[in-house]
Amino acid sequence: MKLLEYEAKDIFKKYGIPVAKGFVVKKTDCDGTGGKINSGIKECELGDEVVIKAQVEVGGRGKAGGVVICPAGDAPEKAAAMFAKDIKGVLVDTILVEEKLPITGEYYLSIALDRSKKAPVILFSAEGGVEIEETAKNNPGALHRVRVSPMLDDIPDFMMRELVRDAPKELAPVIKSLYRVFCKSDAILAEINPLVTTEKGVYAADAKIIVDDNALGRQGITLNRDLTERERLAEDLGFSYVELEGNIGVIGNGAGLTMSTLDMIEYFGGKAANFLDVGGGADRKRVCSAVKLVSGMDGVKVIVVNLLGGITRCDEVAAGIVEAGVSQQVVVRLAGTNEAEGKRILSEKGYRMLGSMEEVVKFAVEEAD
Ligand code: GDP
Ligand code: MN
């Protein structure tokens, strides 16, 4: 999960990475008088100029109008304008108001997980503020890259020297601290772009942390941002669930089988409404909940259930589908454990039993058309 800039900066502070003074304002806290913003600027002593930053989960906010520098007196007006905007389609409901840093240099720093090498990789570049992909393409020589053994909890000195060999040495402690942030936050990415120098020292002017979704529990982070009611329900039920825009509901067991079903729908010219993986060993109750959940989505015309019986039993699956009793047509492909019994239960209730996955998907695509 990607943390918002201010959430990432809160973590940075704990690890001693300097960030600009500032405060967070929610749209719902603003009454139109600007009181909250004016008092915040005063309390935090932000100075004559401030930066207003949209807290949205999209990159390149600066270019998209999500970062505005203005005199402190104009902040309430600029903040109101920011709340009225969307940044690349994402509505702004939170902003960060910060002091304007007197920037003398911008650098790029990130630590990411290199899956193929099974190790964190540190990228550092003296070209900050621009997207790293640009630097990699236009000026690869400016990019320093080192891999750290995952067995180490600190970056060895020789690697530090290599990284900052043509940069101010005062950046070194920030690199070390970010490495600690990366490890301790179970991050798959920790990025500072730009990492800036000023006359008062070094600062993380921006902050990005992506926490490994599998570590959210350990990190005490709850995934509740921007979830629809159905997505929240799916999470409570332990389903892997993603909403899409088509009209064919999809339920499968195992991410691979469910993805193949989506691919096949696309192949036959249909559009999937969702991805729902019920997981291993689903019993009738889970199947029933899954079918009801997908049935409740807007615009779902037909539901494809593609389940392979292993530990999962086809008769349980069939009973779950029947129990859900939804209004849309449910087309089912069942194979494996107790297949015959499952098919019997469904045929008895008038469900259409087709043979192969191709037949099932093709039929669903035609029905949904
Ligand atoms: P992003 O576009 O989403 O990556 O947002 P950033 O937080 O990186 O801000 C974009 C750009 O705004 C930065 O690269 C800086 O050049 C500029 N910027 C951000 N904060 C400050 C600041 O405090 N002072 C100055 N002078 N520029 C800033
Ligand atoms: Mn940035």
Q: Which ranges are low-confidence, i.e. pLDDT below 50, for 5 or more consecutive residues? A: none
Percent of residues in beta strands: 25-35%
Topology as H/E string?
HEHEEHEEEEEHEHHEEEHHEEHEHEHEHH
Tell me the number of helical segments per DSSP (H or I, 4 or more residues long).
Answer: 13
Share of residues in helices: 25-40%
Major sheet summary line: 6 strands, antiparallel
| Cα end-to-end separation | 36 Å
Summarize the structure.
The protein has 13 helices and 17 strands. It has 369 residues and is an alpha+beta fold.
Describe this structure in words.
The protein is α+β, with helices and mostly antiparallel strands and 369 residues long. It has helices spanning 5-14, 35-43, 75-83, 132-138, 157-163, 172-184, 216-219, 229-237, 255-267, 284-295, 314-324, 339-348, 357-368; strands at 22-26, 49-54, 67-71, 86-87, 90-91, 94-99, 103-114, 119-125, 143-147, 187-198, 201-204, 208-211, 240-243, 248-252, 274-277, 302-309, 329-336. A hairpin with a 2-residue loop joins strand 4 and strand 5 (90-91). Helix 8 packs antiparallel against helix 10, helix 10 packs across helix 11 and helix 11 (314-324) runs parallel beside helix 12. The radius of gyration is 26 Å and the shape is elongated. The mean pLDDT is 93. The structure holds guanosine-5'-diphosphate and manganese (II) ion. The site of guanosine-5'-diphosphate (GDP) has 16 residues, from strand 2 and strand 10.
